[in-house]
Design goal:
With about 375 residues, the protein is an alpha/beta fold. It has 2 domains: about 5-255, TIM Barrel (Alpha-Beta Barrel), CATH 3.20.20; about 305-370, Arc Repressor Mutant, subunit A. Helix content is about 40%, strand content about 25%. It has 14 helices and 17 strands. Strand 5 (about 85-100), helix 3 (about 105-115) and strand 6 form a beta-alpha-beta unit. Helix 1 crosses helix 10 (about 280-290), helix 3 runs parallel beside helix 5 and helix 11 runs antiparallel to helix 14. The longest helix has 22 residues, at about 30-50. The protein is globular, with a radius of gyration of 21 Å. The structure holds iron/sulfur cluster. Iron/sulfur cluster (SF4) binds near residues 16, 20, 24, 64 and 122.
């Protein structure tokens, strides 16, 4: 049975973080109603596409999807999915993103009761000054408390996001975050360095911000890898670490080309080799659906050989590597051989994977392959 994943974009946030480039809007009850109406219509519209497929993972991302829990939005969506006679895999992974400031035992119990079995917490740092430098509204203490409360409520699969390369961050402040991980009941860490994207508040004032120098940034990455490895986390993707095989099924789907449908304003999809994205505007998204018009405002389908190259570049993010498709053009195969000679790639049984050096240069390798 072909496997597929679902993504729901819940765009509400208390305040926009200065580095955020996602589509987010204020958390207002009137917006909740508009979103629910749009999601419901989009669900009905796309349901026939999902028939006969096995749903391996469902992901509520944002934004801050936990804002959509108390009013029952997430529960009603999950009810709709379960009531639609779709084939949900028996071990279907259902993840919801939450921020520490919204965490409470009630929230976590309510998530567990509707079947959410994986929590992704936007912790970012356990150092007060670093959290302030990126203008997060939670404290380090609140971050730790959120993890402990989620665990106490019964979550067995907790993932946290951590960020380095923050303004004014020092290696010792990063170490203080890493040193606290051993006491926390987490199974997964997504590790990112801060990137300054256009159209963000940080981008506009980047000249006035002071970031760690590249050598420090590399040392922070190495410190993180060492700490996580010593805590029995396995690095299974460039930026993802998991304990006891708690790999993110949803993200593995992205990296291996599993089809997924995205619902909600700005949500992206990958379906039958085509990528498409919904309009990044809540009211227009729902209005279009009510008028029977598609909310998609971007779509592309790469020619077959280009799609193979792109798939390879993305799948190389996985530490175990990627299979080489026979159909890849000869120049791509030559390029792979060159990258092996230059110690950016290596053979791993039947697969090709990044070397230690290659992990640091994946973006460049991907652009060379594509
Ligand atoms: S909480 Fe996350 S989604 Fe919301 S503004 Fe901050 S970074 Fe963006």
């Amino acid at each position: 049975m072909t496997r597929a994943s679902l993504y729901f974009h819940i765009p509400f946030c208390s305040k926009k973080c200065p580095y955020c480039h996602f589509y987010v809007i204020p958390n207002s009850p009137s917006f909740h109603q508009i979103l629910e109406e749009g999601l419901s219509l989009e669900w009905e519209k796309n349901l026939p596409l999902l028939e006969g497929l096995s749903i391996e993972s469902i992901y509520f991302g944002g934004g801050t999807p936990s804002f959509f829990v108390p009013g029952g939005g997430v529960a009603r969506l999950l009810e709709k999915i379960r009531g639609s006679r779709l084939a949900l895999a028996s071990d279907c992974e259902i993840t919801l993103e939450a921020n520490p400031e919204e965490a409470s035992p009630e929230l976590f119990s309510s998530l567990l009761s509707v079947g959410v079995n994986r929590l992704s917490l936007g912790i970012q740092s356990l150092d007060e000054r670093s959290l302030q430098s990126i203008e997060r509204i939670h404290t380090a203490q609140k971050g730790k408390q959120a993890i402990l409360e989620a665990h106490r409520a019964g979550f067995q699969n907790i993932s946290i996001d951590l960020m380095y390369d923050l303004p004014d961050q020092t290696e010792s402040s990063w170490l203080s975050t890493l040193n606290q991980l051993s006491s926390l009941p987490i199974q997964h860490v997504s590790l990112y360095n801060l990137t300054i994207e256009p159209h963000t508040s940080f981008y506009k004032r980047k000249e006035s911000l002071s970031f760690p120098p590249p050598i420090s940034s590399l040392r922070m990455l190495n410190q993180a890898v060492q700490t996580l490895t010593s805590l029995q986390f396995k690095r299974y993707e460039i930026s993802a670490f998991a304990k006891q095989s708690s790999f993110s099924k949803h993200n593995i789907g992205y990296w291996t080309g599993r089809p997924f449908l995205g619902f909600g304003p700005s949500a992206c999809s990958y379906w039958e080799g085509k990528r498409f994205r919904n309009i990044s505007h809540l009211q227009r998204y729902t209005r279009k659906l009510k008028e029977g018009i598609s909310p998609i405002d971007f779509s592309e389908k790469l020619p077959y050989l280009d799609s193979l190259k792109e798939r390879l570049a993305v799948e190389l993010r996985l530490i175990e590597g990627a299979d080489l498709n026979e159909d890849l053009p000869p120049e791509t195969k030559q390029c792979i051989e060159r990258l092996i000679e230059e110690d950016f790639l290596k053979r791993n049984e039947k697969k090709i994977c990044l070397t230690e050096k290659g992990i640091l240069f994946h973006d460049t390798i991907a652009s060379v392959i594509v």
